[in-house]
Design a protein that fits this description.
This protein has 252 residues and is an alpha/beta fold. The chain is built from 11 helices and 8 strands. An 8-stranded parallel barrel has the order 1-2-3-4-5-6-7-8, surrounded by 6 helices. The structure holds 2-phosphoglycolic acid. The site of 2-phosphoglycolic acid (PGA) has 13 residues, from strand 8.
Length: 252
Amino acid sequence: MSTRTPLIAGNWKMHGSLKDSEALVSALCAGVVGSEGPQMLLCPSYIYIQAVGKWLHGSAIQLGAQNLAEPTGPGAFTGEVSGTMLRDFGCEYVIVGHSERRALYGETNELVAAKFVTAQSQGLTPILCVGETLEEREADRTQTIVQQQVEAVLESVEVEALSNAVVAYEPVWAIGTGRTATPDQAQEVHALIRAMIGSRDVTIAAGLRILYGGSVKGANAKELFAMEDIDGGLVGGASLDAQEFLTIFQAA
Ligand code: PGA
């Protein structure tokens, strides 16, 4: 790991209850003291953001969302939540283009790029998720897919926009499957992403945090985070268990 401040983000997805969330946040707050070292970020579902924000008050843990509406709004977009609303409740980050959004809700590279732009225009730091499916990996298309996903965003913004963004490499075959990419497999893609940005601006590339996601656990976090271009993790399942998530945090 480099001089980039590691970020350990918990993506709670559609999990938990108000009661579970309170216990989880309280255990995490007790485990994260001081603002030195890695940063922790929690991304609860929309409905819990306000409560989690209150519980986090005064702690060093940051708050984010899992998605946002693409239109800047306000407007007639039933069921959608804008970045401005998220900011109102203390969110600083928002995940865009998670593979579940891409696969289950039809989010295309173009829509993800548009959400990236909207997020930044509303004062949120986007966490852009990219990653290939198993089929794509086996067909030796990992590089192409990841390049297309990153390129779609670079077509919509100047490279400078990446100085206020995070990228998460999440191979789809590793998400929620218990099958983690090896540190070398992950490093290879992280280096590719950094090189893509670096071909436009070396300084921005050097400062960009690239997280790894896909079955990160206490037991494998250290070896992943030891890789040169891995600057932390986007953690699903293991972020729902305070002890496990704190172990991952400490590994950074
Ligand atoms: P996982 O999920 O840690 O449960 O594999 C990661 C993610 O989807 O962000």
